[in-house]
Amino acid sequence: MGSVFGRVFRVVTFGESHGPAIGVVIDGVPAGVAIDESFIGRELGRRRFCQLPILNPRCEDEEFQILSGVKDGFTEGTPIAVIVWNRRAISDYYNELWMKPRPGHADLAYYLKFGRFYDHRGGGRASGRETVARIVAGAIAKAVLKQAINVEVASHLIELGGVAISREDYTFEDVVRSWEKPLPMVDDEAVRRAVDVLVNTVKEGDSVGGIGEVLTTEVPPGLGEPVFDKLRADLAKAVMSIGSAVGIEFGLGFRLARMRGSEANDQIVLRNGRPRLETNRIGGTLGGMSIGEPIRFRVAFKPTPSIRKPQRTVDLEKMMETTITFRGRYDVSTAPKAILAAEAMTAIVLVDHAMRAGLIPRVIKR
Amino acid sequence: MGSVFGRVFRVVTFGESHGPAIGVVIDGVPAGVAIDESFIGRELGRRRFCQLPILNPRCEDEEFQILSGVKDGFTEGTPIAVIVWNRRAISDYYNELWMKPRPGHADLAYYLKFGRFYDHRGGGRASGRETVARIVAGAIAKAVLKQAINVEVASHLIELGGVAISREDYTFEDVVRSWEKPLPMVDDEAVRRAVDVLVNTVKEGDSVGGIGEVLTTEVPPGLGEPVFDKLRADLAKAVMSIGSAVGIEFGLGFRLARMRGSEANDQIVLRNGRPRLETNRIGGTLGGMSIGEPIRFRVAFKPTPSIRKPQRTVDLEKMMETTITFRGRYDVSTAPKAILAAEAMTAIVLVDHAMRAGLIPRVIKR
Amino acid sequence: MGSVFGRVFRVVTFGESHGPAIGVVIDGVPAGVAIDESFIGRELGRRRFCQLPILNPRCEDEEFQILSGVKDGFTEGTPIAVIVWNRRAISDYYNELWMKPRPGHADLAYYLKFGRFYDHRGGGRASGRETVARIVAGAIAKAVLKQAINVEVASHLIELGGVAISREDYTFEDVVRSWEKPLPMVDDEAVRRAVDVLVNTVKEGDSVGGIGEVLTTEVPPGLGEPVFDKLRADLAKAVMSIGSAVGIEFGLGFRLARMRGSEANDQIVLRNGRPRLETNRIGGTLGGMSIGEPIRFRVAFKPTPSIRKPQRTVDLEKMMETTITFRGRYDVSTAPKAILAAEAMTAIVLVDHAMRAGLIPRVIKR
Amino acid sequence: MGSVFGRVFRVVTFGESHGPAIGVVIDGVPAGVAIDESFIGRELGRRRFCQLPILNPRCEDEEFQILSGVKDGFTEGTPIAVIVWNRRAISDYYNELWMKPRPGHADLAYYLKFGRFYDHRGGGRASGRETVARIVAGAIAKAVLKQAINVEVASHLIELGGVAISREDYTFEDVVRSWEKPLPMVDDEAVRRAVDVLVNTVKEGDSVGGIGEVLTTEVPPGLGEPVFDKLRADLAKAVMSIGSAVGIEFGLGFRLARMRGSEANDQIVLRNGRPRLETNRIGGTLGGMSIGEPIRFRVAFKPTPSIRKPQRTVDLEKMMETTITFRGRYDVSTAPKAILAAEAMTAIVLVDHAMRAGLIPRVIKR
Predict the structure, then answer these.
(1) Strand residues in chain A grouped as ranges (E)
(2) How confident is the model over D143-171, as pLDDT tens digits?
(3) CA atoms of D174 and A356, how far apart (whole Å)
(4) How confident is the model at residue B59 (pLDDT cuts 50, 70, 90)?
(5) What is the reported pLDDT for D55?
(6) DSSP letter string, C70-84
(7) Which pick of A283, A328, B330, D327 has the fewest CB atoms within 10 Å?
(8) A90-116 confidence digits (pLDDT tens)
(9) Topology of domain C4-356, CATH
(10) CATH 3.60.150.10 given to domain A93-356
(11) Which 3 state secondary structure label does DSSP give A295?
(12) Over 70: is that where the pLDDT of A148 sits?
């Protein structure tokens, strides 16, 4: 249970980190969407951070395969299945961690829920590698969004390892282009300082967290439903389902809680003959529904739990306390990859809600 | 669409603020749960804030009626329907607001989605009064939780109108008892200062936001599912579906994003023969699943959008800019009622996930 | 669990036969649908069979109330809740049946699932009276179908107590008008003979079953989804969820199983510039999806299990065999009311699928 | 949309007949279930009918691969993905059928719903080959049923091409063993006559339909939910989602519609200290829920629509009437493979409902 997301545009993922493959099935894709395999490859490529060997020393392409749902470059309206083959993983250093849950990791939770049957190698199902399937589904979702309702989604980091960007005046395009840098930050000075932090943190065998932001171009009104299925609620679920996410705030978020109504309310004005918000402090929804403004929210990611320092745990076979030191491959920060997953989940939620709202037909006319 | 919540324990709400009634149907309640009508009444009573006339000058009891699913004081296993009748509402001052959406309110979103068919009186379906149905469902959920797996849920405010509590050492019981005070804060000095802020804010015709916290007693392991249906994700969705919620953070939340792994990771220790977290910075879940620790998160609520100051909007019939000043009844802050709704939603999510995890049987043995 | 139906157009029902009320909440109704309360009353009236006192000696109007979702005669796009109040039921003769399950009834199943907590009076949740909620939801669904995509649904009996109609040449209009007769059969002679059978069966304290047919006007293509959510599959679920339904067949149904492909296949021809089926032996779908033809299926209903003859059962308290004779009110055949419920469920499924297929917008333009 | 089945035990399928692979993802499998790959192979093998070359001249093994969710022979509790690779299909003779929908096939429906984007080769997504994924999921479901609640499911044909079995006294074991014969019928004489019919029908280039039956060993009480999610309703949906299914009847089915209550009601008796049905005319459920009896139902399958006789259709590009004669590989009857799919779907529904009812824990203790 738990690996199916969405109501109409449905994403199903599978795969363990050290199993043969990670995969995704997407049911509910409209027919007639042009699918460019190289775009999927590029989206997967953004996870590689080849300019920043600290994050991914090997920088290898992912090998993926579309198994169904696409014919002659266009979606058929049937489920699209994509498999991303896992490279041969070295699981040796996981042997000593069997039944010794790593602090901050999912190991303990899987043991308590599934008993001895869980796969702990490389984090198993809870590995960050799981987000590969989200990225693929996100690429399909982005194609639908762009072709059907001309909406785009982007993301960047606004803080990493304590280094925050110092600009607030960036555009959507600035955010998109930030991915050409070693780290996706709109402020070059912040990139330099954050890289330094990462380098020093790796030296110490430690890890850092970060804060990312997702934003979109203008979303047509009507996405999101009253009461429980608010767009904000489904975005929160989608993003908080990412392994390292620990907080989310829309628009000015926690800052709004300290404002007065007269400061917080976005005034409604007329622009190009349409009612619009003068500001967008609320982040793009009212009453849980999109209103023609861009969606905007921030996500906090905790530091990678795997570190090379000794940590206390319990040997679950002997039921006694012990100490472990992780020796396998690890990311000094999950935030750069995790914000990509948040961007993908945002695209997925937007397609699902646009379809629920009847804004995307079952066949995209070409 | 949007008024159904949950997968196995399903909550369905209906009703407009100025319609005949607000109601809730709860499908999936186990049989054999003792239902005390006076408990439902008391839970609804917590919304009244009778000690604080600024929040609710009238302080009247809600009149509710159980229509199905309960026989001789016990649940039957069939849907429980409860209706809360609306008092005769005075809708007159809403006439002048028809097609003039109030800034910060859902009016504009409803107009853009549903055209002229939306009910704007008292906020219609988007009124804060909608949470009455959540409170009733939460009361049923709390009875199930307590009787089936001995879990309790509580909430309080940690900040209101900029006044924060100064204690961090409070217990679950302190939080429960905070509801005996004029405002549910564990710090008496904060209560006094926050009341002052509310009084002054009302004088100015303005409003304030706040931050609340929800916490539970120890939750048995295994609630929540891998990948998308993480307990954290479903709690985030549940809570972010509350009208004024703009942010949520679990455990130390955004503070974790600024820590190193060695600071953030909760060490695993042996306590009473069970693996436990030495600290609970993460807020009670790992890999998205409960692990035997209490669940803990904070929610940011924006200030009430209705204020008595003039605000800019657009007359949607004439499509021209105009100004409105709200003259109806309003809450100077929605946070005290909203955190109650968050508490209720937490109970609902916990029951739903405990049932999904097979931890609650279909008949509670007595 | 089990009282929620549909994915986008969602129907939720509640209520026990001898409780205060039966009710329904419909979430997902588009905005702008004209709702005529007298139409709901007439649809409920069809259940009364006032011309046939054997089926309903009292012939009283149902008293119903719309609690939400309708403003000034039009749907708002929010959930519509309707309550039908139960008259004061006489439960006395049920006292002797407590823990003595009636053969053919749901009593035994409820006891085995919910223990002593089930409500057996009048059949409780499993009473035929439960279909009142389906009829109300069906009336709303019919309004949506008619106003949004100009589709109509009708039903009639083709066999009752062994008396079959002898015509096959009836039109949709004939079927609609059959409800003006004592029994909804298109063949007057069959009506007379079936009434005789009912009268004689009542004299003997026995009951009879019957077969009904549901048919529609032309349904636009595209309702139904490949593989699991075929229109035929969802109709089968919807109809087989009616208490006394024991079989369903589409088009020629079981007769098709004895044909050759060359006899069974509907040839595809051009009519008015559109590809159409020359015949409609298959009942209106191909590959599980509507193709522009009317939908057509038959349903078998078992005889009413309540009879006034002694029957064998087990006293579940003493765990010993015993005999019971039912003395309460009973319907000599459930088929006439059950086919109405099947008609209602068909309308509900068609709306749900038309919305999934994007054929019904969220606001019906007027 | 449409390729996800189930609420808790969820089956997702994908794949086109002439694409690279057919696949299935099963989410919600409990942990600790022993998975024997050779059992999956044998279940797939039952589709081959190697003793009856008319049904499958090539009789080749399917090549399948488990990609996730199984470790060291046991389920992990995470999604199980299985891929069955398609052999290189010869699509040439489909070229002439492009935009010329075959009567009785899904082609026309796909065109009307998805436009020119559908894959018609080999029936595309609507091919009978789609059931390969159901068989794999059914094999997993059978393993869960057997290991968790000791329930088994079997199926056979009771009529094929007009040849009916003449026995009614067969046992569950007889039904299981019928699969060792050329055709799965419990009556050897019927097998001989049915084979003759198939041979002659092939000679004529025509096809035949049939009727199958699914039955189970005793199912524990409590599967199925009141009102909409009756076990019978979900089984009907599951089975009617199979391509060639046109009717279903439970227990005595349509025969019950012609009986009186006194003939139809199963009397309740005491057997081994438990209340049981004396007969099982109703097919194993009351009020939609299992009661400790075996489940039993029959399914009608229409004849294969592909035949080698000329048939009328419309050329959708030229929008003119034309004639086609199918020249590709075809099954003279789909019934033998289709009843296998019905058996698999039954196992899937039973696991889903047993999990909803809390009868199957999240970890199978070993």
Answers:
(1) 4-5, 10-14, 21-27, 63-68, 70-71, 74-75, 80-85, 153-160, 163-164, 210-218, 245-250, 268-271, 274-277, 285-286, 289-290, 294-301, 311-315, 320-324
(2) 999 999 999 999 999 999 999 999 999 99
(3) 49
(4) confident
(5) 73
(6) EETTEE-SSPEEEEE
(7) D327
(8) 777 788 889 999 999 999 999 999 999
(9) Chorismate synthase, AroC fold (3.60.150)
(10) yes
(11) strand
(12) yes
Q: What is the pLDDT of residues C217-270, one digit of tens each?
A: 999 999 999 999 999 999 999 999 999 999 999 999 999 999 999 999 999 999
**Which residues of C fall within a CB distance of 8 Å from D252?**
246
Distance CA C61, CA C250 (A): 34
H-only helix segments in chain D: 37-45, 92-95, 107-114, 131-149, 172-177, 188-203, 231-240, 261-264, 335-356
- ipTM at complex level: 0.97
C23 contacts C366 by C-beta, under 8 angstroms? no
Phi and psi torsions of D26, nearest 5°: -120, 115
User: Is the pLDDT assigned to residue C57 strictly greater than 70?
Assistant: no
DSSP B193-239: HHHHHHHHHHHTT--B-EEEEEEEEEPPTT-S-SGGG-HHHHHHHHH
Measure Cα distances from D121 to D18, D91, D329, D331 in Å.
6, 6, 12, 16
Q: Does the annotation flag D304 for ligand binding?
A: yes
Q: B261 pLDDT exceeds 70?
A: yes
Instruction: Name residue B12's amino acid.
Output: V
From the list D26, D41, D42, the residue with the least C-alpha distance to D76 is: D26
C91 contact B CB<8A: no
Residue C23 in contact with partner chain B when CB distance is under 8 A = yes
- Phi, psi dihedral angles at C296 (to 5 degrees): -155, 125
Q: Which of D107, D120, D240, D269 is the mutation pick for testing C, counting most C CBs within 10 A?
A: D240
> What pLDDT score was predicted for residue D57?
66
Q: Is B304 part of any known ligand binding site?
A: yes
Q: Looking at CA atoms only, how far is residue C75 from chain D in angstroms?
A: 25
Q: Name chain D's partners: 3 or more CB pairs within 8 A.
A: A, B, C
Task: List, in sequence order, every residue forming a beta bridge with C315; answer none if it has no partner.
Answer: C320
Residue B168 to residue B19: CA distance in whole angstroms: 43
Burial of C256 (0-12, 13-18, 19+ CB in 10 A): buried
Strand partners, A323: A312
What is the C-alpha separation between C327 and D277, in angstroms, rounded? 22
Domain B92-356 has CATH 3.90.800.10: no
Q: Which residues of B touch C34 (CB under 8 A)?
A: none
Q: What are the residue ranges spanned by the domains of chain C?
A: 4-356
**A125 interfaces chain D, CB cutoff of 8 Å:** yes
Convert the pLDDT of each residue in A197-250 to its tens digit.
999 999 999 999 999 999 999 999 999 999 999 999 999 999 999 999 999 999
Amino acid identity of residue B247, one-letter, is: G
* CA max distance for chain B: 71
What is residue B33's predicted lDDT score, i.e. its pLDDT?
A: 98
Alpha helices (runs of H) in chain A, residue ranges in sequence order = 37-45, 92-95, 107-114, 131-149, 172-177, 188-203, 231-240, 261-264, 335-356
* Contact C117/B at CB under 8 A: yes
Give the rounded distance of the alpha carbon of B223 from its chain centre: 20
Q: Is B357 on the interface with A (CB under 8 A)?
A: yes
- Nearby residues of A205 by Cβ (< 8 Å), 6 or more positions away: A307, A308, A309
State whether the Cα torsion A363-B1-B2-B6 is positive or negative.
negative
Q: How far apart are CA A200 and CA C141, in angstroms?
A: 64
Backbone angles phi, psi at D215, to 5 degrees: -145, 160
Mean pLDDT estimate for chain C: 95
State whether B25 and C32 contact (CB < 8 Å): no
Residue bearing tokens 């109300």: C136
